[in-house]
Amino acid sequence: MPITSRAAVIREAPGKFEITEVQVDDPRQNEIRIKMVASGLCHSDDHVVTGDLPVAVYPVCGGHEGAGIVESVGPNTPGFAPGDKVVFSFLPACGKCRWCSSGHQNLCDLGATVLVGSRWEDPTSFRLKLEDGSPVAQFLGISTFSEYTTVSVDSAIKVADDTPLEKACLLGCAAGTGWGSAVNSGDVKPGDTVLILGVGGIGTMAVQGAAHAGAANVIVVDPVAFKREHAQELGATHAVATAEEAAELAQSFTNGQGADVSIVTTGVISGEHVAQAFAATRKAGTVVVTALGKATDVGVPISLLELTMYEKTVKGSLFGSSNPRADIPRLLELYRNGYLKLDEVITTEYSLDEINQGYEDMHAGKNIRGVIRF
Ligand SMILES: NC(=O)c1ccc[n+]([C@@H]2O[C@H](COP(=O)([O-])OP(=O)(O)OC[C@H]3O[C@@H](n4cnc5c(N)ncnc54)[C@H](O)[C@@H]3O)[C@@H](O)[C@H]2O)c1
Ligand SMILES: [Zn+2]
Ligand SMILES: [Zn+2]
């Protein structure tokens, strides 16, 4: 029997989250139905609200950074039992495609389907529906802003029974994305000078990744004083309000050369942010582009001469170039051992009904990561 669940959906973009009842399908083979425990308020869902990140089908139920408890398991679906705890991976990993089998699970071919929000193996079939039977798309195939959701096992990582899901939900996006932007995509090395533009949920995790990798200087830029102070509590060595000040600092620590690695984690990226990071980065250094903006934006105003002559690398980073099946358990272990801070990143908890307040607070610079507790 489908379960009736309260969920936050967007009916059009630009729009607003609206709490409504959805019918959550019984799990089919290779699917599990989850009772949600917690979901982080990542900026990427706000890109759906503003329309910067368009999806194929509306209404769409948001949320992609979540954790919960298995309520039921589809037929012939080994590996999960009711009561198991899971953390979602915001990108599914099939385990079989070229990317999954060569250490790039974040680029799994299933990623091509997640903005449709239906079952990947049966694309006209949706796991969530309105009362009248019309489809509700699942953002990134998971929709963690719902009391219950049915997902493919490709999107779920089973974790130990004693995992605090109200914190571990961040492993579903922010932790892997931010940490991995520094450790995997940026390949930060001991002694490096690292510059991070934007220290919200993702940037704060990048700070931790850079510090953990041994960076000597972790310079953060954010226009909001609260964000700058908070980043310093989690490993940033210097915090300034503008990219220009950060570039000067980076040069002062490197004999005028510039940052070894710069990471762009601003809320709404523009070409200008990448150009600022590029200008602050040394010869043969790396600019990691993690943030998202308007999907149709093109162009980065950088010197092509500098790109060639200084051999700089500009690279995109999706989920921190991580392999969620290996990296979510690994980051959870780092959290348990005290190396990875999650509790400190979650500054405010909200109820599902307070979701729009949570995003207003994000825009107003009042939270680092807001989390919905179900
Ligand atoms: N690539 C991926 O896999 C991936 C995954 C998750 C999120 N994202 C994207 O990463 C970005 C950050 O997400 P978040 O949840 O941390 O957002 P957030 O809103 O919590 O944090 C963004 C921060 O950037 C700061 N900021 C805004 N303009 C700035 C500027 N010009 N210079 C410096 N700082 C500035 C804000 O004050 C804020 O602290 C978003 O664009 C999000 O969509 C990408
Ligand atoms: Zn996210
Ligand atoms: Zn795959």
Summed up, what is this model?
The protein contains 10 helices and 18 strands. With 374 residues, the protein is of the alpha/beta class. Helix 6 runs parallel beside helix 7.
What does this structure look like?
This protein has two domains: 3-172 and 344-373, Quinone Oxidoreductase, Chain A, domain 1, CATH 3.90.180.10; 178-317, NAD(P)-binding Rossmann-like Domain (Rossmann fold), CATH 3.40.50.720. 53% of the residues are buried. 25% of the residues lie in helices and 26% in strands. The two termini are 22 Å apart. α3 (174-185) crosses α4 (201-212) and α6 runs parallel beside α7 (271-280). It has helices spanning 43-50, 165-168, 174-185, 201-212, 225-233, 243-253, 271-280, 304-309, 324-336, 355-363; strands at residues 3-10, 18-24, 31-40, 60-61, 66-73, 85-88, 128-129, 135-138, 148-152, 156-159, 193-197, 217-221, 238-240, 259-264, 281-289, 313-316, 346-350, 369-373. It is α/β, with parallel strands linked by helices. Strands 3, 5, 6, 9, 10, 17 and 18 form a seven-stranded mixed sheet that branches. A six-stranded parallel sheet has the order 13-12-11-14-15-16, with helices on both faces. It binds nicotinamide-adenine-dinucleotide and zinc ion (2 copies). One zinc ion binds next to loops.
